[in-house]
């Protein structure tokens, strides 16, 4: 058995490492001979992404990254409000700012130590076919090459048009008209390292926005919204870029480490599973970066795809399990598109009505704290909740109330990611990521599956006589009770689980 991963950005690297952790040999294909180590690119890594990387041995990313604790929001020359971010009770920070280049470096080091991963650099994919397996045609400096695998995860990024076309997919959606200028600068800015600053319509960028993020090593990432005819080269030559930066940081020394201009998009493929190939990350969906839902969502794609492919390749599940990848992760991508589109409509109003609403909200927010929630500078990345998934058995006593308030999490239950809590001397999610897990309350025994006892109440809110079935990606699949007679709780996954009441010795769950 063998899987292929097409593209070795952070999503592809994560997918390859996860597959190898499940014992699947991987060929990791990338068109570049060497990496470009310059530029912050995707910088904001959310707690659950850090959790996945820590499970692979990359816990240093959470330690090296910088977590700002205060979000300050301005309109013109007035500070509207500032928010202190809660830590959420986890051992991991809610997020860190760390450059994509550093993430790639750390993950590459792990890949180099993993004997199950065969890295093929300098392999440009020119075609993908599926004649009972996956055949990948590549062009290299030594001529054409063909790679065969049983299944593949396509992580070829936004420019993976060749891969998408071969699978009959393309990124449908729209692009925002304005451009965004991004500069990484190195400077001594006392007090700024713990703050994220968002400016609506500042006098030094009238009619548009500016976002300032602190990064490790006295670096700061500055994003300016600029007109669609913006000319970076002309600004650099004429000194306007220097004036643009000094309008923010004042008359102090600084160094431009990296700069680039981007146009933001909202785009999504129709299918994230095409036969034996699963599309992930920017190869499948693009969203505006406000809220950091790009890379973080891609890592969630990788984890979802990896355990399902591993179960299929090992013979522990039928191929139909892969269809749930599309069902779950396409819904997640659609949710991210909706959230980020609402943000962009606030940041870059599309018509007079939106412009009037934004001005009204920003004006009222200066004096009315009740309006602060309506100021949309981006809802930070959060897990997607698989409450509507075919792999989730709903619990009528724990109805899902929908998207929680910004910064909050829904109560634990079917379809929800386990809270990051400790069990005994370890973390509950680490237990879950070793395979299917049954969490039992006192008096309930399990047969045929790994299990761990949890107290009644506690972080899960478990009730007497319950057992919680948890997937290998730490999502709750079902909550079971003694006396239930429910089968196929995770359709397509083989193996029988008996959950037995110590008193009545009654089996109540299978498969």
Automatic annotation (TrEMBL):
Record flagged with keyword 4Fe-4S: no
Cofactor(s) of this protein: FAD
InterPro entries assigned to the protein according to its UniProt record, in alphabetical order: FAD-bd, FAD/NAD-bd_sf, RIFMO-like
Region annotation (Disordered) ranges: 387-414
Molecular functions per Gene Ontology: FAD binding; oxidoreductase activity, acting on paired donors, with incorporation or reduction of molecular oxygen, NAD(P)H as one donor, and incorporation of one atom of oxygen
Top-level taxonomic group: Bacteria
Keyword Oxidoreductase in annotation: yes
Domain FAD-binding: 3-336
Residue stretches of biased makeup (Low complexity): 396-406
Keyword terms: FAD, Flavoprotein, Monooxygenase, Oxidoreductase
Pfam families reported for this sequence: FAD_binding_3
Protein name as annotated: Pentachlorophenol monooxygenase
């Amino acid at each position: 058995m063998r899987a292929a991963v097409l593209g070795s950005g952070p999503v592809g690297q994560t997918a390859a490492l996860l597959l190898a952790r499940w014992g699947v040999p991987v060929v990791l294909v990338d068109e570049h001979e060497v990496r470009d180590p310059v530029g912050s690119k995707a910088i904001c890594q959310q707690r659950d992404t850090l959790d996945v990387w820590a499970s692979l041995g990359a816990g240093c990313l959470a330690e090296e990254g910088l977590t700002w604790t205060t979000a300050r929001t301005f309109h013109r020359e007035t500070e509207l409000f500032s928010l202190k971010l809660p830590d959420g009770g986890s051992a991991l920070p809610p997020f860190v700012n760390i450059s994509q280049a550093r993430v790639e470096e750390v993950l590459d080091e792990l890949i180099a130590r993993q004997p199950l991963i065969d890295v093929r650099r300098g392999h440009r994919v020119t075609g993908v076919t599926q004649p009972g397996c996956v055949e990948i045609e590549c062009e290299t400096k030594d001529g054409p090459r063909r790679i065969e695998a049983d299944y593949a995860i396509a992580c070829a990024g936004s420019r993976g048009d060749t891969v998408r076309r071969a699978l009959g997919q393309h990124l449908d959606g729209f692009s925002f008209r304005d451009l965004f200028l991004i500069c990484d600068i190195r400077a001594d800015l006392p007090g700024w390292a713990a703050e994220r600053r968002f400016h609506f319509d500042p006098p030094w960028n009238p009619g548009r926005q500016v976002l300032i993020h602190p990064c490790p090593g006295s670096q700061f990432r500055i994003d300016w919204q600029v007109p669609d005819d913006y000319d970076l080269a002309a600004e650099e030559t004429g000194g306007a870029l220097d004036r643009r930066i000094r309008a923010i940081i004042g008359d102090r020394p600084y160094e431009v480490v990296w700069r680039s201009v981007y146009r933001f998009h909202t785009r999504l493929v129709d299918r994230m599973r095409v036969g034996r190939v699963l599309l992930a990350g920017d190869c499948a969906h693009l969203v505006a970066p406000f809220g950091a839902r790009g890379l973080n969502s891609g890592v969630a794609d990788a984890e979802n795809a990896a355990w399902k492919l591993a179960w299929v390749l090992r013979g522990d599940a039928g191929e139909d399990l892969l269809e749930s990848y599309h069902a779950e992760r396409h819904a997640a991508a659609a949710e991210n598109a909706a959230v980020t589109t609402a943000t962009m409509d606030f940041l870059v109003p599309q018509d007079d009505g939106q412009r009037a609403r934004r001005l009204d909200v920003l004006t009222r927010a200066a004096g009315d704290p009740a309006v602060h929630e309506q100021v949309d500078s981006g809802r930070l990345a959060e897990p997607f909740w698989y409450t509507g998934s075919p792999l989730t058995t709903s619990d009528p006593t724990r109805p899902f109330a929908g998207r929680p308030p910004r910064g909050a999490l829904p109560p634990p239950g079917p379809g929800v990611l386990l809270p990051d809590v400790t069990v005994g001397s370890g973390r509950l999610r680490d237990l879950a990521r070793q395979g299917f897990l049954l969490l039992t309350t006192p008096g309930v025994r399990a047969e045929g599956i790994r299990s761990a006892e949890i107290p009644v109440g506690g972080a899960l809110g478990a009730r007497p006589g319950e057992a919680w079935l948890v997937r290998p990606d730490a999502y709750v699949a079902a909550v079971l009770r003694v006396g239930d007679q429910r089968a196929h709780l995770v359709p397509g996954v083989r193996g029988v689980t008996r959950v037995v009441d110590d008193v009545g010795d009654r089996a109540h769950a299978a498969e």
